[in-house]
Amino acid sequence: MKGNLKILIFLFSIILNVVFVGTYATYKFQIITIERKDDNLMKPLFLELDLTPEQLTRFKSERDKFHPHLQALEQEIKRKQIELIEILSIDTPDQRAIENKQKEIQELQALAQDRVIVHLLQASALISPEQRTRFFHLIRKRIEVSISSCPPWTKPLEESRTGESG
Asked: Tens of pLDDT along 42-70?
């Protein structure tokens, strides 16, 4: 009996690992497909705006100040998300702890969004009206074609079949 249980647990572990690896590979494959379709999606935006040398210097300076702050926030959000998963994984999760962790994550996400908006406004103030129009058009295009952060199995069946992202 004990031996059969160990074999079942071992098989379940292998199946679970195969599912995780398959999901990861599917997700990565979709990203590679999009990158090949439009290499411009991977280029920094400022390279597509025909900036003057002065604009380029100011744009890069603004970007270099912004990115470390955003990366730090992203790491903090990930840390809180992992803490939430830990709370959810226990046998009887504490609903109050779940709600508190959700609130912490939402506050950090709102802070990140606020910082992105301020950054976009600061960056767009450095460029001409024509460049500004192009800048926001490029951002909109990247958002429209970006892959959702949701795993493929959470997308509607039609989107999963066509490879579209939602």
From this structure: 677 778 888 889 988 998 888 888 999 99
Rounded CA gap, 30 and 164, in Å? Answer: 9
Kindly report whether the global pTM for this prediction surpasses the value 0.70.
no
Neighbours of 113 (CB within 10 A): 11
Q: Which long-range contacts (CB under 8 A, 24 or more apart) does 74-83 make?
A: 74/112, 76/108, 77/105, 77/108, 77/109, 77/112, 80/104, 80/105, 80/108, 81/105
Residue 26 makes CB contacts below 8 A (sequence gap 6+) with 152
Q: Give the closest residue to 83 by CA, choosing from 104, 110, 69.
A: 104
Domains defined along the chain, listed by start? 52-146 (1.20.120.1490)
Tell me how far the alpha carbon of residue 41 is from its chain's centroid.
Answer: 15
Which of 123, 129, 113, 133 minimizes the C-alpha distance to 64? 123
